[in-house]
């Protein structure tokens, strides 16, 4: 696995010609839902891969996540009114969604094989190799949606929804990489990947709270529900971070210590994911607010 490098630039510096999807019949609520759920797909690629490492205790969750990924991908392509997913007519986005669909099918088949009892190293290795291209291409879909919706949402909101949603994925990517290090699967490669993922999560977390011009994040106003939720996420992150730092420090655990550390990391990781998901949902809800005084993100001139 090789962690891909993203160069974040501020989209505030130029205008984009909006595709058919973005300026026709999609409402603000629908656009926000698309950014939220398309972003959640990235997280599911990593959560499914992580849960494979705990197959005996995560079977029900794996099945649920596979079904959710399927449903959302189909909704993004064909539309799904129940989940506020309007069918996109933009050729570039459709092309990228179809590419994700092509990558999803073999990945799904390998996960299904594991669920059926094939937990061979060869099968798990295929999933390990396939999950990153799938996630990278799903990330490209979300970036395309962000560009499409940038001018039609409040300043900074499209980027905020994208990167807040991406934090969910990073939480699961960190957990997967930590598990692979602890289980001595390509430990040096995964240790390097884990350090990079932790750094990006930390930078984005600070940007969501206080703003980051490099990431295009305006920051979040204090005394708002989203700010309070971000503070809750940040508190959990600072409890989780030392656990990960000890893993990347090449500390040598006994077998019992390793299993205890894995269990502790899993527990906090899921709490982190749940709370980050709440924050993204709050951002989605806030995107439709008409009154500037009620909006949780800071104005560009602050």
Automatic annotation (TrEMBL):
| Superkingdom classification of source | Bacteria
The answer on whether this UniProt entry bears the keyword Signal reads yes
Looking up Pfam families in the UniProt record yields: PilJ
Localisation: Membrane
User: In which broad location class does this protein mainly occur, judging by the first location in its UniProt entry?
Assistant: membrane
Boundaries of each NarX-like N-terminal domain copy? Answer: 32-126, 156-249
Alphabetically list the UniProt keywords: Membrane, Signal, Transmembrane, Transmembrane helix
Q: How does it sit in the membrane?
A: Multi-pass membrane protein
* Signal peptide region: 1-22
One GO term describing the cellular component: membrane
UniProt name for this protein? NarX-like N-terminal domain-containing protein
């Amino acid at each position: 696995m090789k962690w891909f490098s993203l160069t974040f630039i501020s989209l505030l510096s130029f205008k984009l010609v909006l595709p058919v999807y973005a300026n026709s019949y999609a409402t603000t609520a629908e656009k926000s839902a698309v950014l939220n759920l398309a972003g959640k797909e990235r997280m599911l690629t990593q959560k499914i891969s992580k849960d494979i490492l705990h197959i005996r205790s995560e079977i029900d969750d794996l099945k649920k996540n596979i079904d959710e990924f399927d449903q959302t991908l189909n909704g993004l392509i064909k539309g799904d009114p129940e989940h506020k997913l309007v069918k996109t007519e933009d050729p570039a986005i459709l092309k990228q969604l179809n590419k994700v669909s092509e990558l999803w099918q073999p990945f799904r088949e390998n996960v299904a094989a594991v669920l059926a009892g094939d937990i061979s190293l060869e099968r798990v290795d295929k999933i390990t190799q396939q999950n990153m291209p799938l996630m990278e291409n799903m990330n490209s879909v979300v970036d395309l949606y962000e560009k499409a919706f940038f001018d039609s949402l409040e300043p900074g909101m499209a980027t905020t929804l994208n990167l807040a949603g991406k934090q969910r994925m990073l939480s699961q990517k960190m957990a997967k990489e930590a598990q692979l290090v602890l289980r001595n699967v390509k430990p040096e490669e995964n240790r390097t990947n884990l350090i990079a993922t932790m750094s990006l999560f930390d930078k984005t977390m600070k940007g969501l709270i206080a703003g980051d011009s490099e990431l295009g994040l305006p920051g979040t106003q204090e005394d708002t529900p989203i700010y309070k939720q971000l503070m809750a996420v940040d508190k959990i992150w600072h409890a989780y971070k030392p656990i990960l730092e000890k893993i990347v420090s090449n500390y040598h655990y006994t077998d019992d210590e390793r299993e205890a550390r894995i269990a502790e990391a899993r527990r906090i990781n899921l709490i982190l994911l749940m709370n980050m998901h709440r924050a993204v949902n709050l951002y989605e809800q806030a995107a439709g607010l008409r009154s500037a005084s009620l909006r949780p993100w800071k104005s560009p001139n602050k």
